[in-house]
Amino acid sequence: MILIVDDDLAIRTSLALLLKKEGFRVMGASSPVETFDVLRQHTPELILLDLNFSIETSGREGMHLLDQIREAYSAIPVILITGWGSIDLAVQGMKKGARDFITKPWQNDHLVQSVRTILNLSQPVVSSPERQKLQEKYQFQYIVGQDPKLLDILQTIGRVAPTDAPVLITGESGTGKELIAEAIHLNSRRKSKPFVKVNLGGISATLFESELFGHVRGAFTDAKTDRIGRFELANRGSIFLDEIGELDLSSQVKLLRVLQERSFEPLGSSKSRTVDVRIICATNRNLEEMVAKGTFREDLYYRINLISVKLPSLRERPDDIPLLAEFFMNNLKEIYHRPALQLSPKAVQWLKTLPLPGNIRQLKNLVERTVLLSGQDRLEVKDFQINLTANTSSAPRSLPEVGTLTLEEMEYHMIQRAMDFHQNKVAKVARSLGITRFALYRRLEKYGISYDADDV
């Protein structure tokens, strides 16, 4: 049963009709006193709470009622209802324990999604997950590891994926945030729809609107044709906003509007377009600290942070290093047609001693570089030592410094060797080096390495 708390009979009636149509049982209350009369007799699964009562528009009465509900009935989740202009108040309510907030005028689909999401997430959690059981239930084939911290995360995303809850994935660079985002999409009801990835760190503030929301012909000097933005491409699917901590404040406001209203206007157009997307964000920055410093909007933080998943660094799960190294090696056997490739037991144990500040991405790069530059099929410790980067922080302290090349010289030689090996196929080179094609293009231009723009 869902309890609707609002002094406006028309709003209670409208919400009741909507929720009953979706199969929910509904009760209503028009005041704080009536709310507790209902709560003493019934235990709702969820409460929809309006922040303003009668002529009171400051929200203080609603916030006081939220405090009372949280104190007496803390197990009942609460969704706040407020006007767009009172989002700051809703954020304060989230800090007090509300699970989500909906702005007026609401969109029916969005409100129902929020209700279903909160109810699904309120179900009890099964303890002690096992990798095999998780694998049988969910699609996690691209995520390697058996560490208990990782298994807890997989269980969480398995439960969250079927909902439309926004998910914030945090963790150091190279910990696999994109893989987790893809797993959320693959295990959702949207899996047959688009999964659109956006690296916000690579989009300038001037191009933000055009990239995410599209533009119409003539919107600016070089806008020769209409362009569809990333949000429209992701309609009915999921959008992965990577490096969200890199957004400037003006872009944060524009993003918040879209997430809140589920609509946007392409640059140069006055016609709004609605969009239905699942939001998944990721960052390696501390957004809470950024909020405290005023560099990240608090209301946006709470909008994207209904569910937060923090990925452990590789040094926190060292027993997974052999599994990951073997996984990468098996992939390289197929990619390079070298079926005899293998890691020696000593090499595997040695890899576990590395700090690996670049985490999984760094381990993958190290394994592939060693395969590329070593003529041996059985890789020993010395093969990896030779191919460590000039950044000696990656090596155990007991090892001598490797080579006399600078980091830039090492990078240049690695890219050149990879380009020769992959016959200048940019996509394959970028994948083998563990970087994006755009990042590879920048380095190719930086070092003056030629490539065929049509052969990607």
From TrEMBL:
Record flagged with keyword ATP-binding: yes
Keyword list (alphabetical) reads: ATP-binding, Nucleotide-binding, Phosphoprotein, Transcription, Transcription regulation
Q: Does the keyword field hold ATP-binding?
A: yes
GO molecular-function annotation terms? ATP binding; sequence-specific DNA binding
Tell me the SMART domains matching this sequence: AAA, REC
- Modified positions (4-aspartylphosphate) are D50
Q: Where is the Sigma-54 factor interaction domain?
A: 143-372
The chain positions of domain Response regulatory read 1-119
Q: Give a GO biological-process term.
A: regulation of DNA-templated transcription
Output the InterPro entries linked to this UniProt entry.
AAA+_ATPase, AAA_lid_NorR, CheY-like_superfamily, Homeodomain-like_sf, HTH_Fis, P-loop_NTPase, Sig_transdc_resp-reg_receiver, Sigma_54_int
Q: Kindly give the PANTHER family that the UniProt entry links to this protein.
A: C4-DICARBOXYLATE TRANSPORT TRANSCRIPTIONAL REGULATORY PROTEIN DCTD (PTHR32071:SF57), TRANSCRIPTIONAL REGULATORY PROTEIN (PTHR32071)
Protein's name in the database = Sigma-54-dependent Fis family transcriptional regulator
Q: Which organism is it from?
A: Siphonobacter curvatus
